[in-house]
Design goal:
There is one protein chain. This protein has helices at about 5-25, 25-35, 35-40, 45-70, 85-105, 110-130, 135-150, 155-170, 180-200. Helix 4 runs antiparallel to helix 5 and helix 6 packs antiparallel against helix 9. With about 200 residues, the protein is mainly alpha-helical. The radius of gyration is 18 Å and the shape is globular. It has 9 helices and no strands. It starts with 5 loop residues before the first helix and ends with a helix.
Length: about 200
């Protein structure tokens, strides 16, 4: 019977953690949240959801992939902190362009709230990133799962499980410290409640 060494076991755990990080990456979660907005808010049309996703996540990811191919960033998760500034600025510009297109489409308030919150989250993370590396995976993941759960308390155990698994994956893949992960969760929760506040103000 072959017994794996501690080093081999550690590598296997890291591969699993990295796999979870890839599957639950910010681009995938945010894109799904936007594209499936009509299922959570009947006032949002599928056309509005597609436009929002294109400008908020899809086009920025394609430009990020191009930057990776040109060697401008080391990886698609942009784990090197100083490489994030340009990516954040580019993404913010595209989101603003998307908001203009949505305005020209006379889009519903619901999709504007969602895109506003993603822009707000990006700005918060970008400001923090000047001094400290916060987990974008956790910021986006926490926000997305809270938005998906909505006001249903019966789903809270699943929300906590999701956050726990994603947090584990970021720490065990050695991409973030526990403190950076907690910082990302705090940002995601704050942006979720900002969305709730916008719903009261904007309707």
């Amino acid at each position: 019977m072959k017994v794996s060494s501690p080093a081999t076991g550690s590598m296997a755990v890291r591969r699993i953690a990295l796999g979870i990080s890839h599957v639950l990456s910010p681009i995938i979660l945010a894109t799904l949240l936007l594209l499936l907005s009509p299922l959570r808010d009947a006032s949002v049309s599928w056309a509005e959801a597609v436009v929002a996703a294109l400008f908020t996540t899809v086009i920025p990811w394609l430009l990020l992939a191009a930057a990776k191919l040109r060697g401008k960033v080391t990886d698609l998760h942009v784990t090197v902190r100083h490489q994030r500034h340009r990516i954040y600025a580019m993404t913010a510009g595209l989101i603003v362009c998307g908001l203009v297109v949505l305005w020209l489409m006379d889009a519903s308030v619901g999709i504007f709230r969602e895109v506003y919150c993603m822009l707000l989250g990006l700005m918060v993370v970008a400001i923090i990133n000047i001094w400290w590396k916060v987990s974008v995976h956790m910021a986006v993941g926490s926000y997305v799962i809270l938005q998906t759960a909505g006001q249903n308390p019966q789903l809270m155990s699943w929300v906590l499980l999701f956050i726990a698994v994603l947090s584990w994956s970021r720490v065990r893949s050695f991409q973030h410290t526990a403190t950076q992960v907690c910082g990302g969760v705090a940002v995601g929760i704050a942006i979720h409640y900002a969305h709730e506040a916008m719903a009261l103000v904007l309707g």
